[in-house]
Amino acid sequence: MDAHLIPMTTIVIAMFSGILLSLTARYFKMSAIAPLLLGGIVLGREGVGFVNSASLGDGLHILISLCVAIILFEGGLSLEPTGFKKAQGVILKLLTLGVLVTWLGTAVAVFLLFKFTPKGALLAGSLVIVTGPTVITPILQRIQVKERLHHILHWEGVLIDPIGVFIAILCYELFSIQQPFLPLLGQLGMRFGVGLAIGSIGGLFIFILLNRRFVAEEQVNIAVLTSVLFLFGVSEMILDEAGILTVVTAGIILGWKKPAHLKNLLRFKSELTELSIATLFILLAANLDLSSFRELGVKAVLLIVIVLFVIRPLNVVVSSWGSNLKLRERLFLSWINPRGIIAGSMASLFALQLADVHPQEAAFFEAFTFGVIGVTVMLQGFFSNPIARLLQVKAPAKKGWLIVGAHPFARKIAAFITQTTHSLCLLVDTNQAAVAESRREGYFAIHQNAMDIDNLPQEETGLIGNLLALTDNRDLNELICSRWADRICPEHLYRWSPTRRPGEQDPLSIGREVWRELPKPSLIAEQIKNRQMVVMRSHLQTARTKIIPGTWPLMASRDDMIHLHSLPWEGEGEALLLQNLSLHLPFFISPEHILRLKVGSFEELINEVLRFADKVVPEFPSASTFSMLMTQQRDFPTTLGNGVAIPHAYCSKIKEPLCFLVRLPDGLDLKAYDGLASKLFFILLSPPGDPETHLRLLADIAQIAHDPQKVVTLLESKTAEEVMTFLREVRLE
Q1: How far is residue 677's CA from residue 199's CA, in Å, rounded to a whole number?
Q2: Which residues 6+ apart lie within 8 Å of 473 measured at CB?
Q3: pLDDT at 103 over 90
Q4: Checking DSSP bridges between strand 680-686 and strand 644-645, what pairing results, if any?
């Protein structure tokens, strides 16, 4: 191969193989660092030689610097200020006292075991200060620890990188240039000053550009990327290595200020970060000399053990002193401290620059750092989950629900979820009237666009583990699920979607389609409001036998879990059914309104019913209502036949119709003034302003009275619940 093509093929192969290994690692739900290290070694000079990092020359240094800038900017973007407040003291100590413990503790161990000079030992110790978001974030996402531990580790991982890099640069200059310590310490302070100043000014400038819409939406990502790299370059021009803190600071400011299009920006930067990590690890691992690892021998193993199991626990003890962290939380913090790409990058750069002057030390720095990276990633990547479970620091399962839509249909579902699982149920809708009505009914509803995740209350969305999109727009429902896919497990994303035409199903679509046979949610909501449909609860075993035409199973609750895609019909639990109604009665009769009375006269029956109504409706006009019902019964008898009577009247004190169903015991009936006997009484009371519903209910009752078998079923039903079930399932001719 021509010599001028080697650098190009090196980068291309590194990028392709790095992403391929990252995708493979994600498929098997493991950390990508281990396969990237192994892949780099196989492709590099110790393997087949396809990746020749040395051919890049100074370009490798430039590539590492730019990739590190992208990685750290993305880390700064992801920091949440609320997380810092929840463990502020511990985080600050980890970034100060903890850094000193790790740095000096490792330096002492290197000095004693390998007899390095103090300056060489300090440089070796500085290389393993950093942890980095590139390794800690995937572990935290996979094991889901308690929120406070998550924030501590995430903040430490992001902010410790520039601190560690600055200290490493200080030690490198102290070791290689042999300058006095105080001037170097002054340069360290200047790097902090330059990084904070340019990062703050640049971050605010980018925020203003985005927030005032000076940049077109389709150009936001590329504009921010080039701006960040420009800030990095300016800082580097002013003072070497100051750009590291610049990009972190700019990222933090943008993340906290939350400009427009932040979500898209985060996704774009996350993809760039993944590409950067994959490429760098392949390039750096390809340049490793395995003989350096063998030459270190048993002492290197002992040194790594000391770093992991002595120095890190000591770091946590010092940093958590005086905090309210529990012992098991401190043990978990002591266990998890993986090193990543920043440590590897610094070690490789120093090794290249020191190879001619200090070859032995250069080989040690690179081998020791990559040894720590490999061991920590392997051990903590594979065993952090069982250790978190053993120490009981895993976060409880997120059982909360976000329902997109606040219409009556969504509210019925929210009520079922809340009542059966006692979980948070948050309704989100852009319809302000629907949100206001939901709030009046006692639901937790927010007037907001569900796509704008960052504008939703973070305290509540942190508890959300399930999403149900119930808009009428199938594509919008899918887009909402896609937007929430990085916060909620795809298995817990649900969306209404109509039945698709053959060949229309997209196998890559996000969110599980539910209720495809149902009409649009808004239509269902309107039918519920107009009392043409009802959403009802039933026991699982009995619900299965009640699935008749016009009834659809929606979801089931069992063992405090909601099953929405496939209902577990067997076992204890509750089912939620949607049913078309022929009758309007089920909306105005509740089980408490179904009475079985033993009375001797019609007057006594009415008095008993009105006494009960007086308990239901405050200041109920019992006397005037009794008079109206008795006058009606005398002048216009309400006996319908088949043993059914429907005394009815208008009552000004009630807001909606109220219906009582009275069943007389076997062998007892009451005769009206027309001489006809009745055993089943529907006492209907309606507000004067709703004669249409009053007449409709009278028609429903007349339809039942016309069928002797329906009357017998109502009289022989043993419980009020059985009566309600029958009324819901009645199909009129």
Answers
A1: 90
A2: none
A3: yes
A4: parallel
Q: Are 364 and 124 in contact (CB under 8 A)?
A: yes
Q: What share of the chain is helix, strand, coil (3-state, %, to 5)?
A: 60, 10, 30
CB 630 within 8 A of CB 637: no
Q: Give the residue among 136, 106, 137 at the shortest CA–CA distance from 124.
A: 106
Residues 414, 425 contacting (CB under 8 angstroms): yes
DSSP 8-33: HHHHHHHHHHHHHHHHHHHHTTS-SH
Three-state SS annotation for 52-120: CHHHHCHHHHHHHHHHHHHHHHHHHHCCCHHHHHHCHHHHHHHHCHHHHHHHHHHHHHHHHHHCCCHHH
Task: Give dist(CA 480, CA 498) in Å, integer.
Answer: 16
pLDDT of residue 549: 65
Q: Report whether 597 contacts 603 (CB < 8 A).
A: no
Same fold, 400-499+509-580 and 591-729: no
pLDDT tens-digit profile of 502-545? Answer: 444 555 578 889 998 888 999 899 888 877 788 888 788 777 76
- Domain extents in the chain: 3-40+58-390, 400-499+509-580, 591-729
Q: Are 402 and 494 in contact (CB under 8 A)?
A: no
Strand partners, 494: 468, 512
Give the pair of three-digit tokens for residue 457: 């209350």
The two structure tokens encoding residue 695? 């007449």
Q: Are 555 and 416 in contact (CB under 8 A)?
A: yes
550 against 111, higher pLDDT = 111
Tokens 């009278």 appear where? Answer: 698
Contact residues for 160 (Cβ-Cβ < 8 A; gap 6+): 94, 95, 99, 129, 130, 131, 132
Least confident of 118-122, 285-289, 414-418: 285-289
Angle at 581 between CA 579 and CA 585, to 5 degrees: 120
CATH 3.40.930.10 for the 591-729 domain, yes or no:
yes
**543 token code pair:** 């619900």
**Domain 3-40+58-390 -> CATH class:** mainly alpha
Report the C-alpha gap between 416 and 38 in whole angstroms.
51
pLDDT in tens, 423-463: 889 999 999 999 999 999 999 999 988 888 767 776 677 77
- For tokens 């906290």, the residue is 256
At 352, list the tokens.
Answer: 């290249």
Cα distances (Å, whole numbers) of residue 379 to 332, 339, 373: 13, 12, 10
Q: Which CATH class is domain 400-499+509-580?
A: alpha beta
Quote the radius of gyration of the chain (alpha carbons, Å): 36
- φ and ψ at 291, to 5 degrees? -65, -25
Pairwise CA distance, residues 470 & 488, whole Å? 17
For a pLDDT cut of 90, what percent of the chain falls above it?
Answer: 24
Whole-angstrom CA distances from 52 to 55, 368, 379 are 6, 22, 29
For 145, which DSSP code? B
What is d(CA 153, CA 332) in angstroms, rounded to the nearest whole number?
Answer: 10
Task: Identify whether the C-beta of residue 128 lies closer than 8 Å to the C-beta of residue 339.
Answer: yes
- Three-state DSSP state, 586: helix
Q: Counting every residue, how long is the chain?
A: 733
